[in-house]
Design brief:
The protein is of the alpha/beta class. The protein is 45% helix and 16% strand. The protein is built from 9 helices and 7 strands. Strands 1-2-3-7-4 form a 5-stranded mixed beta sheet, with helices on one face. Helix 6 crosses helix 7 and helix 8 packs across helix 9. It is globular and about 50 Å long.
Length: 203
């Protein structure tokens, strides 16, 4: 769902796939699971997508509350979009909060990072993972869910990917045997290494 005080910014679909989505909506015929999995997103978050934040923040907040912008992931910004974000962060409105997600903090511009408060996020408990996975994958048996939880490191997004794609599970087993597992965190189902919060709480 959506909320009038919340904006999520992420990589958009490539133009050809955006047309497929729009056509499906106009025709009233939702894309099937295979078609959805075949959709491809742009390699970066483009500057136009970042500039949407200005339009969002220019509107009055619903019931006078906070307006929250979530960017997933800020290491996927190109140079133009990173510079556009920096300008927004330099003068955040008093009612605005930005949550910037990343799995590679070293790729973030120091000027962006210096305007944020860093939050390291913890894995979810097994009971929470199991409850959500059973709800989202009712056709999967308990053994498969248990295996996905064991490989996920406590992160819902990772467990969901493993259940959705058995090849991903096999690939992860091979990868972990070589390089081991690196700590990551999670915000509302989004796998991340760090979250950076800016806005009213900026430094």
């Amino acid at each position: 769902g959506s909320h009038p005080n919340f904006l999520a910014v992420e990589r958009d679909y490539i133009e050809a796939d955006k047309k497929k989505i729009i056509k499906a909506i106009k025709d009233g015929e939702p894309l099937d699971d295979d078609s959805l999995q075949d959709l491809k997103k742009s390699a970066v978050i483009k500057v136009d997508e970042i500039r949407e934040i200005n339009s969002f923040l220019s509107k009055k907040s619903f019931n006078g509350g906070w307006r929250v912008v979530l960017i997933d992931s800020i290491d996927e910004l190109n140079t133009a979009s990173a510079n556009a974000l920096l300008k927004i962060l330099e003068e955040p409105p008093s009612y605005g909060v930005y949550i910037l997600l990343t799995d590679n903090a070293e790729k973030i511009l120091p000027t962006v990072r210096s305007r944020c408060v860093e939050l390291k996020l913890l894995p979810l408990e097994e009971r929470v993972l199991r409850r959500e996975l059973e709800r989202k994958f009712p056709a999967k048996d308990a053994g498969m869910i248990t295996a996905a939880i064991g490989r996920s490191g406590g992160f819902l997004g990772q467990a969901m990917e493993l259940l959705a794609d058995v090849h991903a599970a096999l690939a992860q087993d091979a990868l972990l045997g070589i390089v081991g597992e690196e700590f990551i965190g999670i915000v509302d189902g989004v796998v991340v290494l760090h979250a950076f919060v800016a806005g009213f709480f900026h430094t």
